[in-house]
Design a protein that fits this description.
Low-confidence stretches: 300-307
Structural class: mainly alpha
Number of strands: 0
Order of helices and strands: HHHHHHHHHHHH
Radius of gyration: 23 Å
Strand content: under 5%
Shape: globular
Length: 307
């Protein structure tokens, strides 16, 4: 009888590799939980709903950082998703062959730029331009909205969201492009045969077919947005407050860890940063889990019959 040793070894090896991802997450969570014990005992669940962050007096609360993380990530997605999907559609469906490769090369170059370099560009180029041009324009025409009112500082939650959007655009674009390229050519040919225009082919035969994959690309971008550190730290203003205006400085979970970890002298201060790391891990896992639930709940068949 033929030996099945190779099949069994391959099975157990791949299983071990798959389990290693889960084990790594558990080990990281366990270490963060252990480091958070003093803060958990001192503040309990109030740590998540308290806005005070005063290391001198030993008062710590993570709510401003949770708020800043979610708001800046939402801004980044609002800006990046339309640009990324539209770019992927153009490169896949509309761009001439001689233009596609240079576009793809520039997208890959943007993805390879270190976040600290983007942060420096953000400080010296983007923030002054936003402060002197875009923000006054938004305030002039949309100042009746609370989120576009108040003094303009330049460094702000909106600036942080924009820099994160720049960082996740190449990720979402690259993944979306590969997903759109994987759509079978028969989908397009069938739509053209029925007399559909190029826009109808793109909307019905391509985007509808690939919507689950595109949703996954957005989730990958969201994961990067939630955890982005250096570039956001350099342009968001680093102010632990819950803001009403997007022009005001803010803080994120990742940036407060990077910015204050070396300054944490007391055990409670250090433990608070560990718990913020634990909260960031939990927020990332919950957001991804919620996205998977939404995908399974609301994503119907790839191609719906047209009447």
């Amino acid at each position: 009888m033929p030996s099945h040793f190779g099949d069994r070894a391959f099975h157990w090896l791949t299983l071990l590799m798959a389990l290693s991802v889960f084990i790594l997450i558990v080990l990281i969570g366990t270490e963060l939980f252990r480091g958070s014990q003093p803060t958990l005992k001192a503040f309990g669940w109030h740590f998540l709903v308290t806005s005070d962050w005063d290391p001198v007096n030993g008062q710590f609360g993570a709510l401003p950082f949770i708020f800043g993380t979610l708001v800046s990530s939402a801004i980044a997605l609002i800006i990046a998703v339309p640009i990324s999907v539209a770019t992927a559609v153009y490169l896949t469906e509309l761009a001439p062959l001689w233009l596609r490769q240079p576009f793809v090369m520039f997208i890959e170059l943007l993805a390879a730029v270190p976040s600290v370099i983007l942060g420096l560009w953000g400080i010296f180029v983007m923030v002054p331009w936003l402060r002197d041009h875009l923000f006054p324009l938004l305030q002039k025409y949309l100042g009746f909205l609370p989120i576009f009112s108040g003094p303009i500082y330049g460094v702000s939650v909106l600036a942080g969201g924009i820099i994160v959007a720049i960082m996740i655009i190449p990720i979402i674009t690259s993944v979306s492009r590969e997903i759109l390229r994987s759509v079978p050519g028969l989908q397009r040919e069938a739509a053209y045969a029925l007399g559909a225009t190029r826009w109808e082919v793109t909307r019905i035969a391509v985007l509808s077919y690939a919507k689950k994959g595109l949703f996954g690309a957005v989730i990958l971008g969201l994961g990067r947005a939630l955890g982005e550190t250096m570039a956001v730290t350099m342009v968001i203003g680093n102010s632990p407050q819950i803001i009403k205006s997007l022009f005001a400085p803010g803080y994120t979970l990742a940036s407060v860890i990077a910015n204050e970890f070396t300054e944490a002298t007391g055990d409670l201060y250090l433990s608070s940063l560990f718990e913020i790391g634990l909260v960031l891990l939990a927020v990332t896992i919950m957001v991804n889990a919620l996205a998977q639930i939404l995908l399974k709940t609301f994503a119907g068949p790839s191609i719906k019959p047209q009447h």
